[in-house]
Amino acid sequence: MKLTVKVMDIAAQGVLLHITDAWTIGVLEGDRVRVLNEATSESVSAIVNITSSFLTQGSIGVYQKTNGRVGFKEGAIAEVRETERLASIDYIKKKMDGQHLSKEEMLAIVKDTVAENLSPVEMAAFVTASYIHGLDMDEVEHLTRSMVETGDRIQFATHPIVDKHSIGGVPGNKISLLVVPIIAASGLKIPKTSSRAITGAGGTADLMEVLAPVEFSSAEVKRMTEKVGGSIVWGGATNIAPADDRFIMVEYPFRIDATGQMLASVMAKKSAVGADLAVIDIPVGNGTKVATVQEGRRLASQFMELGERLNIHVECALTYGESLVGHSIGPNLEVYEALSVLEGARAPGSLIQKSLSLSGIVLEMAGKAARGQGYAMAEGILTSGKALEKLRQIIEIQGGKPDVRSPDILPGEHHFVVNAPLDGYVVGLNNRSLITIARAAGAPHDRGAGIIIHAKKGTKVKQGEPIMTIYAERSWRLQKAVEIGRQLMPVLVEGMLLGHISPVHWV
Amino acid sequence: MKLTVKVMDIAAQGVLLHITDAWTIGVLEGDRVRVLNEATSESVSAIVNITSSFLTQGSIGVYQKTNGRVGFKEGAIAEVRETERLASIDYIKKKMDGQHLSKEEMLAIVKDTVAENLSPVEMAAFVTASYIHGLDMDEVEHLTRSMVETGDRIQFATHPIVDKHSIGGVPGNKISLLVVPIIAASGLKIPKTSSRAITGAGGTADLMEVLAPVEFSSAEVKRMTEKVGGSIVWGGATNIAPADDRFIMVEYPFRIDATGQMLASVMAKKSAVGADLAVIDIPVGNGTKVATVQEGRRLASQFMELGERLNIHVECALTYGESLVGHSIGPNLEVYEALSVLEGARAPGSLIQKSLSLSGIVLEMAGKAARGQGYAMAEGILTSGKALEKLRQIIEIQGGKPDVRSPDILPGEHHFVVNAPLDGYVVGLNNRSLITIARAAGAPHDRGAGIIIHAKKGTKVKQGEPIMTIYAERSWRLQKAVEIGRQLMPVLVEGMLLGHISPVHWV
Description:
Chain A is an alpha/beta fold. Helices cover 41% and strands 20% of the residues of chain A.
């Protein structure tokens, strides 16, 4: 039927129909219609929202993203029809019924995901069904290739291109700020796309943004990497494997990270940037995504098999994940810590060792160092100051201030110190609770918000000594974080008396 | 944070935040915030939509349904916070992981469904997980009781209260228009809540609406049923088991009807109207929801077990579902057919027999007829004209015209006749295709739209004899239905020559 267009400046996909018109067309809330602009012959499929009063009968509200694809002027006439049923819905149903999806079927689902033809309900059903039934390696390969094909791809003139990825689950994991410049300083090219925190206190992209802009097109990533050897950008801005962001939004409420989806998500990005080899960091331990070394080994072999199918040489590092990397959580605090190591600080050991280990593996894989010599080579690059120099080049090419120094990066002005309630040892440090407290303090949005842990697991402490400090940019945020800390008790101190476990003291 | 309210007249739940404010609060599209009206101390949980231009920073758009619960005036100040995580999300995750849900957990999910605290993504995950893992009988009982508890309940002063339900899947199933008046005429009380077509060509509520209004509160259903013994209303208007409509919206794209959800959906409505006994019609055969008699028996035993747990005496009728009931599909055509039987017509046999069988079972269950005598008693009520008289009372009390006669109910003025392409037998009649054609012709919205089948499966036809007629109220609808009919070829005629199967001829 023909309806008069009201352009609605809401940054979403979709159209708004009067309930009577929807009924006439034969669609319900959440159904799709095809909307045709007869003036331009452009048409688009859009999810229907229904109103009984915001519009009069005979008109259609077209949301911004949808109108971006069909280009109506206010008051134009739209031809609106019930759409054909999407084949991808039948494929999702197949997966719900436990059947195997072919390459073509997976591609159809991913295409309709990227085009936003699938509704949130349909996406959720696909993600849930994939989570419950799992994806076999053929399906994971189809999914990965489909995610690559439906986004931008970078083709570098020279090779090898190397990459690094951490599957996450451990807080304070700022190692990319060290690994990328070490690798790039060795002469290898590493175009690192990274994520912003969704449930964490700061993703690599949030951290890098303290130093320089991180939103670039894939063409800019290519140019910058060719020029200085490395870049650290936010993947969400690049249109590389754009399906991934939509899948993540659906997984987000349930904090699920189904193995098949994770494998595809990581490897699609490596494949799309043209990586020849990649090292995958798999943090292992309670509170991470991988509870045991056995599970970590299984996951590693899946990453390696998928890499082989995609012609990417993959090696994995199982790393200790039960305690944070370094001592800081939150953008500015983490960047301060990483910068000070690049500037020559000899601590924290966990951060330095992990960064050098992963860098070493890459250097060996790429043939820059002999097997067994990668760690030492990475250490040489770090201690010589070449890694710092390289990071400054990356900061500069991304548009930041290359002469930044660690003292320039300040914590939030409000802070609260938590002291040990008794003499003893720190026996527990809950990753998830620490992240929750850092987020309550304002991280990652408030860059100065976060936590410094003074006494990590196993440390001997005296009564009254500081265990952790919470920082915030706004005092009400600090108060809230302290309140939540009181409930969560993220640190446990045990005295000499066996069995006497005491939470830290919150004043 | 405090934001200035812009009341948005979109008939939906939710709020619209500027992207910067969303980031500050720490929420993403699809997250929830708690919105507090400090003037009234009312607060509500709402799903977040994000805009970067439709609102300025510092303001919040509040959609109609959400504002209905919190009562802002334009320009008021709202306190907006990230909400606590809903416990029901953790319970949904449990179900995704294949675990069993307790009564309390199921109730939390259903409560948050009814309050619209759960997003479509979360609802979809619950429905998908329940579909894949299934619900055991304890969970089905919890779900049913939760659906009853979260809606209106009718308590009648006198008993027994009886009910009837068809699980659907066969087109043209207008039997409630006969069963309800037959039962009510026997002196029993039958408050029949029914559905509108979602994927069909006309639900019982769509049919009844040809004769009288169908939207009533549960209190009105009680009053009407007490007065005349029966009513036929749209369940969606009553607030009886309101969770069901939300679950159905999520199942709709996938056309799934998971057994556990279906059992709960049907029996929650029976329980909420206070039914003491109910007969369930289970159509069996290709093209219905239940393919074999064995499956039908299993489903019947589940209905009976659930009934026992809810203290409702349930019996089931497995009925022939491979061919439509009667000859008509579409509101007016079906109502015409049902009315003419009440007025004394002796055909169609399939409609009369099915209606009398189901009525007979109810009469026997309620002790109105001796075992084996129910059918005859029902037949007596029908042929005596008492059932017609009772339907007229029901029409009158619901606000329709009680003196309506079948010739008053007219088919759409446009029609197209499909003739037999050769001498032979009708060997195939595809239920789903017939429904698709009837919907294309405009049913159920255009009440005169639909199909009359002149030759059902097994009928001998001569070349050129009419096989079916398609009716529509609008000529373009008729054209579309004919076009779709050409593609779907819903009727097959086989000649004497074995193996020669010919689709009917579409001019």
